[in-house]
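Observation: inputs received (chain + S-adenosyl-L-homocysteine).
Thought: call the complex predictor directly.
Action: predict_structure
Action Input:
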Amino acid sequence: MSPCASPLFFVPPLLSKKLYIKTYGCQMNVYDSARMADVMAPLGYRPTETATDADLIILNTCHIREKAEEKVYSDLGRIRKAHARKEGTGERALIAVGGCVGQAEGEEILRRAPYVDMVFGPQSYHNLPDMVMRAQRDGGHVVNLDFAPQPKFDSLPDQSSPQGPSAFLSVQEGCDKFCTFCVVPYTRGAEYSRPAADIEAEARRLVERGALEITLLGQNVNAWHGAGETGDWTLGQLIRRLAEISGLERIRYMTSHPRDMDDSLIAAHGEVEKLMPFLHLPVQSGSDSVLARMNRKHKVDFYLGIIEKLSKARPDIALSSDFIVGFPGETDIEFAATMKLVETVGFAQSYSFKYSPRPGTPAAIVEEQVPEEVKTERLVQLQALITRQQVAFNRSKLGQTMPVLFDRAGKLEDQLIGKSQYMQSVHVRDASAYSGKIVDVTITGAYQNSLAGEIHQPHARRQNVG
Ligand code: SAH
Ligand code: SF4
Ligand code: F3S
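Observation:
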């Protein structure tokens, strides 16, 4: 984690340049984009909101479903035009494709979009200064698909980009599980856990810079393990350690795999007050036969058993999940089992997707692909159920007073938006004094995707009553 000592890093302010990063996909990409900005800051690059006035354009991409990938190519087409306009002024912006499409497609991107200057994957962005220098100096294409995460984490500079009250911290990378539908093991590589001491140091820096909430990130975050003072620690032990950091008020982690929900982590939900009572635990399907074909290596009963244990440890825990409909060979009966599982658990929110065949994954070459119209019908049914549950969960909070972390401005004047402990968005008017703080809010309105509330003022109320 030592700052890079390249002489290139001493850049006079006059040489300030503009960096535009567009982020696609998961929170790990959000974290990576912020770190790319950190890596480029010492070279004089400052973030800009528009691609048109940028000197360096980075698309930090996602390969998880076909649509995510298509979006990158259509955005590249648009950016090319903006880039050409910039070229008309005699200035030349560099265009880079990073992230999971970069890793998966490599040189193919340069064939489809030859105006792209640089292609790199999620494990090589610490080399951005060198890539930019080579692209500028040589004018050709630069491709860097190095695959080991450790050198990246070892050479990233300390965070310098602005830090809000809610921060992401990547603790684990990659995946060894090879679910038959998924590209992640091919785009992010093998499972890697960062050392506990590095994570704690980064968490302390984030808190010093204003973070009240930290979400620990990993494709399989609960597979994290690492040497601690008392032997090989699991995520539950790491969370207990981070909870000791004064000033850190909230801890979350995502995304978890059911097989890695060990007893210490489940117990932490009951014992660590700072660990929020909300868990995203993707199950993908409610059918054992589909789960077996997906290579998930867990059954429905196992998943339900974990939820039972979690609810015992923390009775108010709220859950969310991911579902795939129309996995190859999925029958009506198998889909009905997914509907039944959702009915049984009752999720606070969930994400659901039509199966998207991904090149190089085993499920993509199975002959019994489910027709598109069947996938659509199933998705509509499942999403209607998920929405009903989400509305019911939100309504159950009406009249309650709960702590909300205000982390962004709303669209209306004097409106703030924050997060409840259960990841609900909460809108409050006349609240600007509370920006960046955790404040008790009484819930006065409940909608599908958000809650409305008023700042809880016990003293004012007592005075009124008295
Ligand atoms: N590591 C997490 C998921 C990461 S990918 C886990 O194991 O659960 C995020 C979500 O995208 C997955 O949970 C899955 O629901 C969805 N997904 C992944 N590959 C997909 C595909 N080929 N088609 C449709 N959805 C997919
Ligand atoms: Fe993909 Fe499965 Fe790994 Fe999750 S556990 S990242 S779904 S291969
Ligand atoms: Fe997408 Fe890569 Fe994340 S494929 S979901 S950006 S790990």
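Thought: report the result.
Final Answer: The longest helix spans residues 372-395. The domain at 162-276 is CATH 3.30.750.210 (Transcription Regulator spoIIAA).
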